[in-house]
DNA sequence: TTGGGTTGCTACACATAGAGTAGCAAGGTG
DNA sequence: CACCTTGCTACTCTATGTGTAGCAACCCAA
């Protein structure tokens, strides 16, 4: 019985709304549940809790009771992978704004 | 009046279900609507059409009537950016399968 | 010890996004 | 003309996400 490819699995996870945003908000420092909530523009606790559950299962975040939620090493690695996306995105937006 | 940051905009787009998959399926060769549909496991035309509309608006794909849908240069650039994700994903899955 | 403030989280009702199926109009081919 | 494929729309139903209220556990000061 085989799993689906790793890339498919992570793409599924990252395609859930708020997942990337949550990872991004944890980039610098651990945050408590409620800090995360307001960092994401008062994201509803229903969704936040659900995403945090997924992220913990994926071992991308942990919940250190004294510090709050924080990225694991894996989580930080993912963030690194996403860095080039930012540069691409800027070029993309510029090209889009330009005339056809 | 300012747009939201480029990175946020592309993350929003990529967070819609099937968007990455569609880009992926177009990686090698143009596909017709129906080829794309079956490449994505008989994705419903409702969603496929909607995603293709978004992707065309984002200038990541074009619809060449004689060849079908294909990636633009921008689209192919995005695919390049995603390549490191694949390697990360494999390491991630391995670590996840391993004991805590 | 009591009142206030956190904390993480659940319950529930409502809204939007996606899935599944049918089928149409346009075009090409025999 | 009959028959195929094309891209796509209409429709219904389910999954996913949103918004608000509020609870139990904890800490801290009076």
What labels describe this entry?
Arc Repressor Mutant, subunit A, 100 residues, mainly alpha, homodimer, DNA-binding, 2 strands, two-stranded antiparallel sheet
Question: What does this entry look like structurally?
Answer:
The structure is a homodimer of 100-residue chains. Chain A has 100 residues and is mainly α. Chain A has a single domain (6-97), classed as Orthogonal Bundle (Arc Repressor Mutant, subunit A), CATH 1.10.10.10. Helices cover 61% and strands 8% of the residues of chain A. Chain A contains five helices and two strands. Chain A has helices at residues 6-14, 19-25, 33-39, 45-57, 73-97; strands at 61-64, 68-71. In chain A, strands 1-2 form a two-stranded antiparallel ribbon. In chain A, a hairpin with a 3-residue loop joins strand 1 (61-64) and strand 2. The longest helix of chain A is centred in the C-terminal third of the chain and has 25 residues, at 73-97. Chain A is globular, with a radius of gyration of 15 Å. The model of chain A has no long low-confidence stretch (mean pLDDT 93). The A-B interface holds A 3, 5-7, 9-11, 14-17, 19-21, 58-59, 74, 77-78, 81, 84-86, 88-93, 95-96 and B 3, 5-7, 9-11, 14-17, 19-21, 58-59, 74, 77-78, 81, 84-86, 88-93, 95-96.
């Amino acid at each position: 019985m085989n799993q689906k490819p790793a890339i498919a699995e992570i793409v599924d996870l990252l395609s859930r709304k708020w997942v990337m945003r949550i990872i991004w908000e944890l980039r610098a420092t651990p945050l408590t549940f409620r800090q995360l909530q307001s960092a994401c523009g008062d994201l509803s606790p229903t969704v936040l809790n659900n995403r945090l559950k997924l992220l913990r299962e994926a071992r991308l975040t942990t919940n250190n009771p004294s510090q709050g939620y924080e990225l694991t090493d894996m989580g930080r690695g993912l963030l690194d992978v996403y860095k080039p996306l930012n540069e691409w995105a800027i070029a993309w937006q510029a090209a889009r704004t330009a005339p056809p």
